Amino acid sequence: MRAAIRSRAFQSPTQQRWVTSSPTVSVSGTTTPLPANALNQKPKSPFYFDTGYSLFAKRPSRPFPPPFFSPPSGSFSDPLSTHNRSRDRRTYVNGEFIRGITNGDDAVLVGENFIGANDGVGAWAAREKGHAALWSRLILHFWALEAERDASVTDAAATSSEPDPVEYLQKAYEQTIAATSSPNEWNGTTTACAALLHYSTNEPRIPLLYVTNLGDSQCLVMRPKNQSLIYKTSEQWHWFDCPRQLGTNSPDTPIANAVMDKVIIEENDVVLAMSDGVVDNLWEHEVLANVVDSIRKWESGAGGEASGDRAGGAAGGMLFVAEELMKAARIVAEDPYAESPFMERAVEEGLAMEGGSSCDAESQTLPWVSLNQNHTGATTSWYDPGLPRQERRETTSKNPWKNH
Fold this sequence. Notes:
The chain is of the alpha+beta class. The protein has helices at 132-149, 151-154, 165-179, 254-257, 276-279, 284-299, 317-333, 341-348, 389-396; strands spanning 2-7, 25-29, 47-57, 92-93, 96-97, 101-103, 106-110, 114-118, 189-190, 192-199, 207-214, 218-223, 228-232, 237-239, 242-243, 246-247, 259-264, 269-274, 361-368. Strand 12 (218-223) and strand 13 form a beta hairpin.
């Protein structure tokens, strides 16, 4: 997912585009659906995310089980038939439309002031009553709902307090446990990563980013005008390939293990929320170079029709940037001989492994506002998707972010 911070004084119309390809599963768009009665249908913040997301799943998502999904009945005479809802393919919990969308075992949510990427642990698919996609989606749904209900987020008049995303996540975790307990028992675990856009309480108002992470998904904040990386989350592991996670039999909890950082940002900074399907296949310098290059292409007229001024990736450019980043990650993921961050970490652990990681991948992108001091040392000259593998391996050995 990618997003940019904008002032509402210059808000452009919302763009929505869905793209699917066969036989693989890929989807892209600008925002995920919201019910008509959502509290933050139009958040009252003076700033908003200009968003785009692109998803790729290694296999189709499993349908949610009842009572979260009401499948079409075979006939009107079926016992306990749900034919009255057979045309409604949406999923529900506690009478609420479930926010976000599912991507394989993962879940993403993209809104004007909240974006999130939860990475469900796919191994639960082999277990009885296992459904990681349900867990990742429900936690993200309840997390977003808690943010909607908090007056400090949804009410511009509540300037004396600030949001508490870790508390929101703790409540979401507890509500997910309740929703997946008897008689609707389903097991699963998921990482959690989200960014909430708020603003300072003093004049002049400046945008603030509240980034919360538990596990190995990642949030990056980039400043394309300086070609620099100004913030990244830190991965949390129990051991290699076993990140911290929320859910069945896991000792981790949001209140004890989630980390929240508050980042000052500025207009046209780019925020990325990504699952390990991206970060396992692209080094940070490659992500930075890809984003900067895609924004320049968009500004020069590439990437499709714009709804307004293209400067800084506005007017639909974040969707294009997200799609280009996903394409780059997918090239590596599907190359059995590729050099990749995942392969590098595996070798450091003494495991014989090569090629990219085939995890489900999500990229969300957003441009924004920040007053952070520029972070030095970033470079944009390393990534070229047209390079032969050997050349890419040689350039990655000089990766300036490797020990960042």
